[in-house]
Design goal:
This protein has 205 residues and is of the alpha/beta class. The protein contains eight helices and seven strands; from the N terminus they run ββββααβαααβαβαα.
């Protein structure tokens, strides 16, 4: 698989952008690398799945926009780290199915039940590409920015040494509270929400 590497100046400082050119019909995976990570241990890493509506259009239905930018802030402040961007829209079901899921959620279903109604699993993502990318970058062990135990477990199964898992608190909005509670209660994400949601309600009262 061909790899492209390019210098990328950003508002958070310079980094290197790596793109792995896929086979026809597949999406390219991308990594942003700050500092020198080759043969390094305990590298701060975020595995971010694509979310067009959140990352580009700043949708409030999910917390993806905040998670992406908070992770980049932490990595840049550290001066060394990797953000792997996987093209797994809608927890792996694709953009069109995700938008169909939005319609069902507007009718009262949560994200898990909406996916099931469309014939999909709650989460169809695969982190094998992330493990391969970290290996190609020469990262020896990672401090993973994540609230999702399945993500760290999948990386370990794929051979990545996860030396620590660092919580990434979500940005709670009135529009995404049900989504976050579903992630906690039905998908097992480690989220401390009750006090934050109560505070949000107090501010809105």
């Amino acid at each position: 698989m061909r790899k492209i590497e390019a210098a990328l100046p950003t508002r958070r400082g310079p980094c290197q952008l790596f793109c792995w050119v896929p086979q026809p019909g597949e999406q390219p995976d991308i990594a942003l690398v700050f500092g020198d990570v080759h043969e390094c241990e305990h590298v701060m890493v975020r595995i971010q799945s694509e979310c067009l509506t959140g990352h580009v259009f700043e949708s409030l239905i999910c917390d993806c926009h905040g998670q992406l930018h908070d992770a980049l802030d932490r990595i840049a402040a550290e001066g060394r780290g990797v953000l792997v961007y996987l093209r797994q829209e809608g927890r792996g079901i694709g953009l069109v199915a995700k938008l169909d899921s939005y319609v069902l959620q507007a009718q009262g279903l949560d994200t898990v039940d909406a996916n099931a109604a469309l014939g999909h699993a709650a989460d169809e993502r695969n982190y094998g590409a992330a493990a391969r990318i970290l290996g190609e970058l020469g990262v020896r062990s990672v401090r993973l920015l994540s609230n999702n135990p399945d993500k760290s477990a999948a990386l370990r199964t794929a051979g990545v040494v996860v030396s620590d898992v660092i919580p990434l608190p979500p940005r709670v909005e009135s529009e995404n509270q049900r989504y976050l509670v579903t992630k906690r209660d039905r998908l097992g994400h480690k989220l401390e929400l009750d006090a934050v949601i109560e505070s949000t309600h107090d501010l809105g009262s």
